[in-house]
Design a protein that fits this description.
CATH class of the largest domain: Alpha Beta
CATH topology of the largest domain: Chemotaxis protein chec
Number of helices: 9
Radius of gyration: 28 Å
Largest sheet: 7 strands, antiparallel
Number of strands: 11
Strand content: 25-35%
CATH superfamily of the largest domain: CheC-like
Order of helices and strands: HEHEEHHEEEEHHHEHEEEH
Length: 306
């Protein structure tokens, strides 16, 4: 671990926040793309153009994203040597053909970083869409005060060095994130021990409700909720597919559902079945004609059940 030109407290904050981002990054790629990939920070220091140019020594794949935080506007740039970037893309594509470009991979890193800072800062940063460029590094790519973070990207038994140039306020964000968060464990330790004393527990007996009570008294008590908006979903059908077939889906693929042509569609309110119907077209919009409703007592029970 190296932190050339960076205060120790800031270096600690950087490594802590990067470790959290890496965990989110790994989880998202594992869940969404079925890839076991991680990017661990090994070194953080002040960026120097000549040193970085000598290290890259040739064309680089650059993934550029804008960053906005408070009144600061900047960017960060991921860099890989061109031949190593091509080798990494080939490895990833061999496992998931849909991921044929590294901008998608680093877009996930941006999402992980955004979610991490959102938990720690009242005003978290926002990231722009990644843009790809392949070219030699030039002096304009490294600004005064920029930070250089060096990672080891690990995937399928291979390791690739990844360099990230970040605007100077990235250090301020890391410091702010470290200051604004109080760990739950620390909070618990600061609370005094309280003896609640004996607790009185009594059994409560509830009367059984019949359908008539549910259908009249319960409906009347719902009037105060009439303006509350609920999600209404019409389900055309469902099916299950193995992961292999899901990954092979492409534009023009046809997914066969479990319902037959002419079968009624199901209408759900807040994930609870309310009715059945048939699909119609109303002024160029799809609609549903209700053909069968649950009885009122069942509807109320359905909406209230967990």
């Amino acid at each position: 671990m190296s932190e050339a030109g960076i205060a120790q407290e800031t270096a600690n904050a950087l490594f802590n926040i990067e470790a959290e981002i890496n965990e989110r990054f790994k989880t998202m790629l594992a869940n969404d793309a079925m890839l076991t990939l991680e990017m661990e920070l090994h070194e953080a220091k002040s960026a120097n153009f000549e040193e970085l140019q000598s290290t890259i020594s040739g064309p680089a794949l650059m993934v550029l994203s804008s960053i906005e935080w408070n009144e600061n506007s900047g960017r960060h740039v991921f860099l890989l040597r061109e031949e190593e970037a091509n080798a990494l893309v080939a490895q990833i594509t061999a496992q998931n053909e849909a991921l044929d470009s590294l901008d998608v991979v680093f877009a996930n890193w941006n999402v992980g970083a955004g979610e991490t800072f959102q938990e720690k800062l009242a005003n978290p940063p926002t990231f722009g869409e990644p843009q790809l460029e392949t070219r030699p590094l030039n002096a304009e790519d490294v600004q005064e005060g920029d930070l250089l973070l060096i990672y080891q990207l690990k995937f399928d038994g291979s390791e690739y060095p990844v360099y990230r140039i970040a605007s100077s306020f990235w250090q301020q964000m890391a410091d702010a994130a470290g200051l604004e968060v109080t760990a739950v464990e620390d909070l618990a330790e600061s609370l005094p021990d309280i003896d609640p004393g004996p607790i009185q527990v009594e059994n409560v007996k509830f009367d059984d409700l019949n359908d008539e009570e549910v259908g009249s008294e319960a409906i009347g008590s719902l009037e105060m909720l009439y303006d509350l908006k609920l999600d209404l979903v019409v389900e055309l059908g469902r099916t299950k597919k193995p992961i292999r077939e899901i990954l092979e889906l492409a534009r023009g693929s046809i997914v066969e559902l479990d319902k037959l042509a002419g079968d009624p569609v199901e209408i759900y309110v807040n994930d609870r079945k309310l009715a059945e119907g048939e699909v119609v077209v109303v002024d160029d919009h799809f609609g549903v004609r209700v053909t069968n409703l649950l009885k009122p007592s069942d509807r109320i029970k359905s909406l209230g059940s967990s």
